[in-house]
Amino acid sequence: MPGFGDPRARVLVIGLAPAAHGANRTGRVFTGDGPGASGDFLMRAMHAHGFANLTTARHPEDGLKLTDAFIAAAVRCAPPDNKPTPVEIATCHAHLVAETDALPRIRVIVCLGRIAFDAAWRLLDDRGVIVRPRPAFGHGAAYTHGDYTVIGSYHPSRQNTNTGKLTPEMLAAVFGEARRLITNR
User: Fold this and answer.
1) Is there a contact between 42 and 112 (Cβ–Cβ < 8 Å)?
2) Kindly report the CA angle at 142 between 17 and 35, in degrees rounded to 5?
3) Fewer CB within 10 Å: C terminus or N terminus of the chain?
4) By three-state DSSP, how is residue 80 classified?
5) What is the pLDDT of residues 84-127, one digit of tens each?
6) What is the per-residue pLDDT across 49-77, written as a single tens digit (0 to 9) for each?
7) 20: confidence class by pLDDT, cuts 50, 70, 90
8) What was the pLDDT predicted at 36?
9) Residues 79, 20: Cα–Cα separation, whole Å
10) What CA–CA distance (Å, rounded) separates 10 from 177?
11) Spatial separation of the C-alpha atoms in residues 84 and 88, rounded to whole Å
């Protein structure tokens, strides 16, 4: 499933994969998985910092527009139990590369979960930004290399949001940092 957003984006948001009952059904990542689910949780945080014009993501014709942000997924199909295999991740990487090649202004990559974090470093490898050893994933951890900053975040899945592992304030802070970084460049 392709990503969506502003073709002039400076912030790339990478998620895991389309949700079986959300994006896989609606055709737009982080969309249609229900009130209070990951799409709405994400849009509230993005809206708080001017990246989204709405606080919800219900269907592709809902009027949601992203400004200076583009959302993509590390895996392009809904994997069983939201656990993609290494083969699925590797197979889908070429799609992520092709999609982001059309986004020349990207400077900040917000990674929603460990799989997205790893995908971001592979993406930068493909752009000639080789970082070894790779930095450790952590919520709110930000690493700048060359022209890019990679920010880790827990994924806004219900498993993380319902348990308090990821709060609205925590995710909003990540997008606040992304806004600060692109404003100061």
Assistant:
1) yes
2) 40
3) C
4) helix
5) 889 999 999 999 999 999 999 999 999 999 999 999 999 999 99
6) 999 999 998 888 899 999 999 999 999 87
7) low
8) 63
9) 8
10) 13
11) 6
